[in-house]
Amino acid sequence: MTKEKLQQEIRKLAKDRKALILAHNYQPPEIQEVADLVGDSLELSLQAAQTDAKVLVFCGVVFMAETAAIVSPEKIVLLPNPQAGCAMADMITPEDVKALREKYPGAPVVTYVNSYADVKAESDICCTSANVVRVVASLPEKEVICLPDKNLARYAQRHFPDKKIIYHEGFCPFHDVLTPEDVQRAREAHPEALFVAHPECRPEVIDLADHVASTSGMLRFCRESDHKEFIIGTEVGLLYPLQKQNPDKKFYPASEKMLCEAMKITTLELVYKALESLEPRVTVPEDIRSRALRAVKRMLEVPRS
Ligand code: SF4
């Protein structure tokens, strides 16, 4: 079957199942093409929760499907490839969070949404790479635990000279891999381009950035900028929506090393099978779900300005 035919069959089956197909910005182009919504993980889950879809097919990784299940417990959440894990989310456990709380009593725990439900459940509040500064600013305490990403925590620290941000030694291997030398090489190859970095990059890479933003923030920045060329310091999958939305602009990966394999193992065939069988499902036990939801809701209550 051709790619186009399979995509048509998927759309037909999705309609029959009253299903919404969600694709993260890092998914392969053929998956983004067939999706109802493309975006970052939290925005996809929140948008999907507002719909009357009975089934959500999350083309992303496990923690993203869990977040959809946390905010939409009444919907069936499918993860077409259950092997799609997240190397960063794997770097922390609920026991690690408890140990940090014991070590720093009174310090609130801010957990990046790129974590599993059981870690979110141990947290006071969640954050995204877009709102981490606002979330930390909303906390009166001088000491704040920010996990699991040490790079995101150190990025937050830059904005709060009067606070101490305590971090866990987690990181995203596909952002942390980017070095200043890579950026230098990309700048030499594209001297007219602005360098845009994701906060999951190392501090020495953030120092070199013309702009720092989440994936949604990068899409907005590149769309609104008068500039025509950009070096993109995040997972290479983002180049597809960037180029699609801005056909008159040029985008270059900061490094081809920034490729998350887990984000590429969802195929059209697996999406079709998931819709056909309504498996594999992702569920979150209710005691974990309700505590994780509390941390997510608290984040959503933080004022925008
Ligand atoms: S890019 Fe990094 S944070 Fe995102 S799913 Fe892959 S390992 Fe996890």
UniProtKB/TrEMBL annotation:
Binding site for iminosuccinate: 24, 41, 112-114, 129, 198-200, 215
Gene3D superfamilies, A to Z: NadA-like
Uppermost EC category: transferase
Alphabetic keyword roster: 4Fe-4S, Cytoplasm, Iron, Iron-sulfur, Metal-binding, Pyridine nucleotide biosynthesis, Transferase
Source domain of life: Bacteria
Transmembrane region(s): none
Cofactor: how bound: Binds 1 [4Fe-4S] cluster per subunit.
GO CC annotation: cytosol
EC identifiers of the protein: 2.5.1.72
Keyword Iron among UniProt keywords: yes
GO process annotations (BP): 'de novo' NAD+ biosynthetic process from L-aspartate
Database matches in PANTHER family: QUINOLINATE SYNTHASE, CHLOROPLASTIC, QUINOLINATE SYNTHETASE A
Protein name listed in UniProt: Quinolinate synthase
UniProt lineage: Bacteria, Pseudomonadati, Thermodesulfobacteriota, Thermodesulfobacteria, Thermodesulfobacteriales
Gene: nadA
